[in-house]
Each structure stands twice: as structure tokens, then as C-alpha cells.
Design brief:
Elements lengths: L1 H17 L12 H8 L4 E4 L5 E7 L5 E7 L5 E6 L3 H4 L8 H8 L4 E5 L4 E10 L2 E10 L5 E8 L1 H5 L2
Antiparallel strand pairs: 1-2, 2-3, 3-4, 5-6, 6-7, 7-8
Length: 160
């Protein structure tokens, strides 16, 4: 059963990734070409040196999020899928909302817990074992990361 589930998840991930292949973008590609092929980015972060980072969410529930670094010369510097363990491990206690937003992009969901004075941002992602949720808990007053959780997405398992 586990092998069958893994095969199904692989096929679903392949289909969602096949719609628009971000791995085909190479450094040096003109930013206009990226926008012509993939459309306008979800968000754009402008840096002091004139460079930018463009965010593109993809997948059925946004389980992929590509960040494309554009240099001041308006060419692609790098393309990264950031909803991965490598990027999640960069989120640390004490980081600001802006730091986390720039690292992982726009969360799928933001929930406020008044009594706990907590704001929780959630990103869905796909791991070999299935759909997961990455939660970052911020102190609402300071906007600083207090804790981080990774949980299995039970709604995805039962089909919402």
C-alpha cells in the first residue's frame, strides 16, 4: 500500500510540475522571457542593488513555490523551489515575518490565535511520504518566530 501511495504521489507531482517547467529557466535568461512564459509573479521583492526576487506558486494546493532571482541587468541569476527541507531548515526562532516571507514566499494560510497572541503561517508541501504542512508560529506583537512545526496534511490524505 505504501509503495502504491508513493507511486500515485509521484505521478501527481509530475503532472503538476509538467504544466510549467521552471527547471528550463537558466541563468542569463531575460526577465521579459520569464514573464512572457510564466506570467506575472505572485510577489516581487526589490533589493537595494536593483535586483529582485520573483515568487511563483505552483501545484494543486501550492505545494511548489519557485523564487527567481533577477539581477540588476534584468537577467535570471537563479531559480529555486523553496518548499523543501533545505529551505525550511533555514527558518529559525527569532526571525522576523519579513525574513520568513522573503525566504519561503506567501503562505497558503495565516491564522491568528488571540488568546495565545500568536499568528501561524502555513505552507503545504510534498514529501516522498505524502502531503505535509510547514507551520511557522509568530508572536503577534513582535512578529518574531517562536516555534516551527511540520505535520502530515490529513485533509490531503482524505481528499478535503
Amino acid at each position: 500500500m505504501t509503495l502504491y501511495r508513493a507511486a500515485i504521489l509521484f505521478v501527481l507531482a509530475s503532472l503538476s510540475a509538467g504544466c510549467q517547467n521552471f527547471s528550463a529557466i537558466s541563468p542569463g535568461t531575460l526577465s521579459q522571457e520569464v514573464q512572457a512564459h510564466f506570467g506575472a509573479p505572485n510577489s516581487i521583492w526589490k533589493n537595494a542593488d536593483g535586483s529582485e526576487v520573483w515568487e511563483y506558486p505552483r501545484g494543486r494546493t501550492g505545494v511548489q513555490r519557485f523564487m527567481i532571482a533577477i539581477g540588476p541587468d534584468r537577467t535570471v541569476r537563479s531559480v529555486n523551489q523553496v518548499l523543501t527541507e533545505a529551505y525550511f531548515s533555514k527558518v529559525q526562532i527569532g526571525m522576523s515575518r519579513d525574513d520568513v516571507h522573503r525566504l519561503l514566499g506567501t503562505p497558503r494560510e495565516i491564522v491568528n490565535f488571540e488568546r495565545r497572541n500568536e499568528e501561524v503561517w502555513t505552507w503545504p508541501y510534498l514529501q516522498f511520504s505524502g502531503y505535509m504542512l510547514f507551520h511557522v508560529h509568530f508572536d503577534r506583537s513582535s512578529g518574531i518566530v517562536e516555534r516551527i512545526l511540520r505535520l502530515e496534511d490529513l485533509d490531503a490524505l482524505v481528499g478535503d
